[in-house]
Amino acid sequence: MLPYSKQSIDQRDIDAVVEVLKSDWLTTGPMVSRFEEAVGNYVSAPHAVAFSNGTAALHATIATSNIQPGDEVIVPAITFVATANAVVYCGGTPIFADVDPDTLLINPQDVVRKITSRTRAILAMDYAGQTCDYPKLKQIADQNDLTLLSDGCHSIGAMSYGRHVPEWVEAACYSFHPVKPMTTCEGGMVVTGDAGRAESLRRFRNHGINSDHHQRARNGTCYYDMESLGFNYRLSDVQCALGLAQLQRLREWTERRSRIAQAYHRQLRDLNFLKPLKNVPGAGHAHHLFVVRWHAENAGVDRDSAIQKLREAGVFANVHYRPVYQHSFYQKRKKQSRLVSCPKADAVYPQLISLPIFPAMQENDVAKVVTELKRIADPARSHRWNKAA
Ligand SMILES: *Cc1c(COP(=O)(O)O)cnc(C)c1O
């Protein structure tokens, strides 16, 4: 079975993990700050704070943006539910902005339309690994006195219009779940250029307590104060060691993903029953997902049947994502969130298929996926296609 995504683990990862298991510190030890520093360097951010997962990282990002009940945060209609949920955790209201159907990235004009006197922040998401139009979003945020934030769970390391993503935003979040560009089993990170926010993030990760055990040991005291309400959102040293080992290969993996995406683009050119998402010049891309829009009217078979047939043929395709507001939790809150649907997101969602892409994938795996796609599309039509091509 070809999964849509898959982690790469080798002996270097295993050795790194075993070494920490044999050491004194399984958590709150030296690997945490080493991993934070390495990720900060990788994405060109002065401060990095590790979290137990990407959702915790998002929660901390919204909380340290001082989002409070009544505040609105603009998020894309198509993203993983955690992007919007982070706003709800803080009592805020996610306001959904529509996406560009060609890229599934948040549409800046619709962001402008959704701004009200209660809007405090924009939380953009780099769908599939392609970065948002940050120059435009930053201009909108600056003009309206909003905090610009990034859910970079798909895009770690990607450049955006000549800068690293964290250089455009006040904070960016990453996830290290196994399907993401690199893994710590579960894990996350927030990066920021703001030292004050970094300190708040560390406090939020550790119950809202104002010092950690290292600081207390240095100061020769056992006293600590809980200044605000926080959580236990720490990432263990074992996981950070795995993350450090993974990070050594991330650049090479992203390069691999880019070549797989190019192979798909070459082999899927000129088909009328599916269209890959567009790459925007200057946007930068980490190629986390390879997403196509399935045109059922030309394929003669609908998207869900196509996915089912792909799975029967050993290709485990997937869908990213159902528009968040379509979920029953958000439908139930429809009134309080002034929920209006986003027509482009609604129209594109039934077309989405994420095809397999991961570093260990080979060119012949790409060819197999493409062969199956052509076979599944109505034979008479695809025959015409093959002749035309
Ligand atoms: C994976 C993901 C998250 C959540 O990360 P976890 O580590 O699974 O909590 C949030 N947003 C996006 C866009 C993601 O892809």
Quick synopsis:
Helix content is about 40%, strand content about 15%.
Overall mean confidence score, pLDDT? 95
Fraction of helical residues: 40-55%
Low-confidence stretches: none
Distance between the termini: 29 Å
Major sheet details? 7 strands, mixed
Secondary structure tally: strands: 12
Structural class: alpha/beta
Determine Rg (CA atoms, Å).
22 Å
Number of helices: 15
Based on the structure, what is the oligomeric state of the protein chains? single chain
In which order are the strands of the major sheet placed? 1-9-8-5-4-2-3
Q: Report the bound ligands by name, code or SMILES.
A: pyridoxal-5'-phosphate
Order of helices and strands: HHEHEHEHEHEEEEEHHHEEHHHHEHH
Beta-strand fraction estimate:
5-15%
Principal-axis shape equals globular
Write the SSE topology:
Blueprint: H1 11-21, H2 30-43, E1 47-51, H3 54-63, E2 72-76, H4 81-89, E3 93-97, H5 108-114, E4 119-125, H6 134-143, E5 147-151, E6 159-160, E7 163-164, E8 171-175, E9 188-192, H7 195-205, H8 213-219, H9 237-267, E10 274-276, E11 290-294, H10 296-299, H11 303-312, H12 328-332, H13 343-348, E12 352-355, H14 363-376, H15 379-388
Parallel strand pairs: 2-3, 2-4, 4-5, 5-8
Antiparallel strand pairs: 1-9, 6-7, 8-9, 10-11, 11-12
The chain binds pyridoxal-5'-phosphate (PLP).
